[in-house]
Specification:
alpha/beta; 5 strands; 5 helices; single chain; 130 residues
Amino acid sequence: MYAKMFNRMDMNNNLKELSKELKREFGRNSKHEIVVVGGAAIVLKHDFRESSSDIDAIVSDGSSIKDAVRRTADRLGLSADWLNSDFKQSSSYSGQLVAVSKYYRTFNQVLDVRIVDDILSILREKKRLK
C-alpha cells in the first residue's frame, strides 16, 4: 500500500481542517504555530516539487495539538503521521530553523504556518559552526 501524496492544495486543505479542530478545542482566541520543513516546505513554496507524503513540522506546542492532529487524520482519512516532527531526529535538524523560517499563511485565525524554504543555507551554517 502506498502512502497518499499531498500536493499544495491538499496540504492547505489539511492545515485548514487542523485549524478548525484547534479552534473547536482551544477557542477562537487561541494561537498555535508550526514551522514546515523539508519536502512539504518545498511543495508549499516552489513549483519544482509537486507533492510530499507528509508534512514535517516543528510544532511549538506539540503535545497540546496532538489530539487535534489525530482527529483531523481520522476525519479526513489520513495516516496518523500526516503531520509529524520526525524531522527533529535527523542530522539536518537545527534549532536555527525556527529563526530563519518565513511566514506562509494563517488558517482560521488560530494556526500560523511558517516555512523553511532555504534548507541548504541552514545546512551550510550548521556545518560552518562545527
